[in-house]
Automatic annotation (TrEMBL):
<dbReference type="InterPro" id="IPR041064">
    <property type="entry name" value="T6PP_helical"/>
</dbReference>
<dbReference type="Pfam" id="PF18572">
    <property type="entry name" value="T6PP_N"/>
</dbReference>
<dbReference type="InterPro" id="IPR023214">
    <property type="entry name" value="HAD_sf"/>
</dbReference>
<dbReference type="InterPro" id="IPR036412">
    <property type="entry name" value="HAD-like_sf"/>
</dbReference>
<feature type="domain" description="Trehalose-6-phosphate phosphatase helical bundle">
    <location>
        <begin position="6"/>
        <end position="101"/>
    </location>
</feature>
<feature type="domain" description="Trehalose-6-phosphate phosphatase C-terminal">
    <location>
        <begin position="124"/>
        <end position="387"/>
    </location>
</feature>
<protein>
    <submittedName>
        <fullName>Trehalose 6-phosphate synthase</fullName>
    </submittedName>
</protein>
<dbReference type="Pfam" id="PF21141">
    <property type="entry name" value="T6PP_C"/>
</dbReference>
<dbReference type="InterPro" id="IPR049063">
    <property type="entry name" value="T6PP_C"/>
</dbReference>
Amino acid sequence: MKLEYLADFYAQMRLLRETRASIVNTLKSPSKGIDSEYLVQLDKIENQLKNIPQKKDLYQLKTHDEKLISLELYYELGDLKKDRIYLKQGQQALVKHLSEFNLNFDNDLKAGLKFLKEKTFSYFISDRDGTVSNYCGRYQSSVQSIYNAMYLSSFSKCVKDESVILTSAPLHHLGLLDISVQPQGEYALAGSKGRELVDTKNKTFNYPIEKQQQQQLDELNSAIEDLLKKPKYSSFKYIGSGLQYKFGQTTLARQDKNGSIPQHESLDLKDKINEILKSLDPEEENFKLEDTGKDLEIMLTVQEKDSQKVDFNKGHGVSFIANTLQYNFKNQPVLICGDTTSDLPMLDAAKEMEAILTCIFVTNDDDLKQKVYEKCEDALIVSSPDALVSILYQYSKNKNT
């Protein structure tokens, strides 16, 4: 099947997720061999992606209304290649490939193993994208790779109590659960900065939202949907993060990493969203808008102890998860991983709960490095998600030998 439309592309990504999950479950059962049909399916999907029409190194797909969208597929094709190497050539071949692909990989791996060597952890909490998973141009197609799931699976066995993946993305509705291939029971999965949570027993929890705020959020989402039905704005559903309904938050892409949208159109969308917010929340009491340059993040505010309303952050999420799942951080060794300033509140929350804190951040930003070191005395900085998950995996193998 030739891929011409975005809908067909995303259908293949859903099939990729099912195929990878089946392979991971098989690999977790050593008595079973991988069905050759799954390997054929991986090759077929990879070839379909490579055969999408290209223009100036970008892949061209159509929306339902025949608009052309330009995509880079570094993540999708790159992780398919890594999985192929992992499955057909083995672990050492993958390490060699990762060292060629990632700057400073060998040095990061060596430093990371030295850093973790004598440590043990009761809890592990990590951001996903940019931390334990490489960034992808579209969240819907950032399907977790096989090697990544196996690496994180191995590390979770070394964590005494619980492990958590905490992301800003939604949990449901084209969210974390739809792109994860991690076997159930290994990690609690938290979306919307921790507002929504599925524990290792598959039980769901949600951070409480005031009825009035939820009604306003529903009105906001309805107004955004109406706006995107207009031909002038319909393309924004298909680029970058698209339209994501998170628990207590809505994200709408106004640009993608390739700059597919003309700047004046992108800013026009932002103006329209601000108009909607002004009409719904003229006193700016319930919503806060954050513009990342690519995404418009519209967040419900939360009440702080001093009665000040602030936007919900991952620190609130960590506190909610710990209280809900009865995690006892006090005097316990906790490892937290992240890659942006939005992950720093997780460190603050752990310290407030008197954890013995260790952190690893993935960044090449000197300002962020300094902030990490200021907040956590026991910190390590690495250059790539592949380096981080390789460190965690090799640490776990060393612990088991």
